[in-house]
Write a structure and sequence with these properties.
single chain; about 700 residues; alpha+beta; 19 strands; about 50% helix; globular
Amino acid sequence: MPGPRRTAPHTEHAIRQIKNVLDQEFASLVDMSDYERKQPEERQKALYSRSLAALAVRGLTGLGNEEAAVCLIDGRDDHGIDAIAVSETSSRIWLIQSKWSGQGRASLNQGEALKFLRGWRLLENREFDRFNERIQDMADKINAVLLDPHTRVHFVIALTGDGQLHPDVTGVFDEAFAETNGFGLTLDRQVLGTQALWEQIRVERAPEDIPIDAKMRQWTYVKTPVEMYQGIVSAEQVARWVGEAGDGLFHRNIRASLGTTDVNAGILESLAADPEHFLFFHNGITVICRSLTATFPGRRRQDEEVVLTMRGASVVNGAQSVSTLHRALQDHPDALAEADISVHVICVDDPSSDLPARITDTRNRQNRVEERDFVALDETQALIREDFGNIGKFYTYKRGEPDPVPEQGCSVVEASLALACAHPNVKLAVRAKQNVDTLWERGAEGAYPMLFGEQPNASQIWGSVRLRRAVGDRLHQVGKELRGRGSDVADRGDLLVTHLVFQSIGRKDMGAEEYDWEETLEKAQDLVDSVFPRLLHHIDAEYGPDSKASLTRTLSDPVRCRKLAELVLHDVRSSSPVPAIDDGYRLKKGQRKRKQRRPNSAAILLDAGVLRSGTQLEFRPTTSTEEEAMKGWLAEDQRRAQATWTTDRKQTLLWEADGKHYSPSGLVMRMYELAGWENSPVAVQGPAKWHIEGKSMAAHAERLFAELGDAE
């Protein structure tokens, strides 16, 4: 009889490495108070599972250990979700389920996958009160990100196993994703098995600065304002840089390797077919480095070779070519040995300089012309602006122009949204909710000709804009009294409701100069109270809440929204009774409302007026990983850790290192970039890292906000 299956030696090693990281870096940070009365073995397994989820959060988001541990929500009423990480800056949510096995045999079964997805549906429907307190504390942040129609939600399974899911399990996810994807919100799945988690740890521990060399001939040298060498380098040398420095070689580039593309295939083809002339076919590459050492094997002459040793090097232009040459090492090594390439090496040793960013932008791209830019060329828009002047209002239509104060006018974007809602074809409003850029599309089916082909007058545009604003204001009031799916429809269905209000009124006379918009605006509240309950009723009747239908899919699908609009408008026109909103969607009497979201720390401090302009702040890392990554760079110039408080609401800090204004978080991210911290977080709580007299901005703001609440 065969004995128990043994774990492969490399897997055993990987699990040991993972276990060591969990013990050393996360065990003390994980809340295990709910396991105090459990057996030690049960408690230990749960601790490893939770710590594994925190490790995954760190790898996925770049957060520090303490911040990753805060993302843990595992426990009673977690609905299959062990951790949640949210990036408001990139509109991404990571839902993590973790499984620990000391033998490397952890897996996910179908029931656990279904529970995981049911937990997501509760989040999507904003039923936060069904979860434990940890997730309720995150509710406002989750809701804010979900309001972005292009949010990406990543379902992450982190486990000490082979990382392979059974087809029955993947089928469960695929079915759920098919219901939602393609309608704005995007769901995807990622499995982090033992090997992936081990690789994450190895990357996190890897040295960040690997020097690379270039033997350059026929070179020229520029000394000021910064050092630069330009010359010819063998393609084989360049190809080997990738193996020596890894992905760090491209950390400043605007794109990572794109893999096999037409352009890269063309590079390979020209290399293989005519390596002797490759130098003349190719534009060359540009490398920016932090330090540069030149040695001369022979005489110090331009017709002899110079060896350049670059530290902190990054290919900022030509990254695709370098990656392609690296692949050619395996496919065309002989051709590679015969080919040369032109190389620029630029040394910028001032970490506070913006020159690297400017070089990268300039050498990689020009300003992209967007569809909206063509709007500025349309004479119709200039005529509308003139027309607005006739009614004493302002209208802007060029990208980059500041929008008027709401009471004094509107932009072409706001005008287009209002006209899209007023149009009888509901698909314009539905698509605009997902992506406002669809309103600039031309052609027979394009939205722009439908909205502006027959020039609307200023009175019609201005009235439509104000009606849309009034509908939005009423929906905001209605939504405050609702919860879950009801509140979600009020938030995300605003353009659809506005469309229904316009169609309830009728558009026949709206284009007339004498149309009475004031009378229409007075009806806005009653119209919302008429169409919104009907819309909610028909959404539930046709597509939920008990069906598999995703609310995201429903509100993003023009076909479904057309059907809903027909049903609602039929009810309105037939004067059928307005259905009552289901009691399950209403906040019950005495029910504690969700805690008001705290304004950002800078706004609180500015409003309180507790800091005078010129107050000094000091940067302090909040995690050991951050401290290790930043300490050398900070020590080089003490000004890097110093900033001054200003009264600029958007950029309250003046950094002493470069004399420029930043937001607290923006400055921290800029410092990470200049310090060359490649594994830095994708988002940070900047106010927690800037200190005034020993206490962080965040702590000062928290105290002031609490005092304000007490005063109320």
